[in-house]
Amino acid sequence: MGTITQSIANNLTTGLGGASGVNFRNIIINGNMSIAQRGTSTASITSDGYYTVDRFLVEIGGDSVWTQSQASDAPSGQGFNLSLKMDCTTAQASPASNDIVLVGQSIEGSNLQKIKQGTSNAQSTTLSFWHKHTKTGTNIVELLDADNANGVSGAYTQSVSDTWEKATITFPANTSGTYGNDSNRSLRIRFIMGAGSDYTSGTLATTWQTTITDANRYVGQVNNADNTANNFSITGVQYEVGTTASEFEFLPVDVNLQRCQRYCYVITGATDQNIAIGSSANGTGTSAFYLPLLTTMRSAPSGSFTTVSHFEKLKYETGWAALTSIALSTTQPFLYVIEGGSSQNDTRGAGTALRINNSSGKITLSSEL
Predict the structure, then answer these.
(1) Could you read off the pLDDT of 89-104 as tens digits, one per residue?
(2) Same structural domain for residues 244 and 357?
């Protein structure tokens, strides 16, 4: 067998991530927490949103306040360098009965077809991850089927405070209700940090509930929000078909980034860095810029920009000029940036350029689930 052929055979056998098994067996994206396009730390979190580590959503119901960070802390000798860390900065010792605080990831249906849910061949699945929580005791992970309103929960234990430990939870096959083969949200994997009595007063649902009883969802869950000394960290999150946990699938950073950019795409750069070219649209101070996206996003994204004054355009007659407005329009896989409101007219059709004049400037496109 030739060298190239042998190399291909090795990749098929060992997997792109270096462990035995099929490539992309991990359904979770960015499970090693290595991509954080939005930033590495956000304080004073009191509401639902994506803040730092890509693909992981915070959901907060209640009065606790958190700082989330991409932390340089990980279990030793496992290949991980980073983790997602939630630091409680305002405690809530007694949550209301309907409060829930969690971190989770939503998964589109097209990435779940190998589970064969809703058929006689439905597969069991296994979630494995590393956790380091200040508060010891039981924590709950929930699989929530968004297509069919089914749910199942599993428990794990933090045995020693502020110590990295590994959890493995196997969930039973579900022969009820298929996942849509589309780009919509079909499954939510949720790491519970705290929950009120509405969700903890029954018997933990370790088999699929086709009619969800809230009281059975998070039974035994400790309150990680009861003290400002509490931290809640996870990394190495892997969700795969089967009843055993395989070694974590490490992907090349460019592959991991591109997978994240399907849902969040951030355009940024150094000060005075050109990011697009365009032309004057009508001779009255309006220009249109065209940016090809390197990845086709999940759906037509919503767009936002950080501070208009961080961007400026090269005007044909006068050189660089500050922008006074930006509008974003996306026709995949392209982003159009429309600038208007300049006090000086351009020459119609004149070439121009768009640049960032402050390294804090960025354009964020989101098509999260």
Answers:
(1) 999 999 999 999 999 9
(2) no
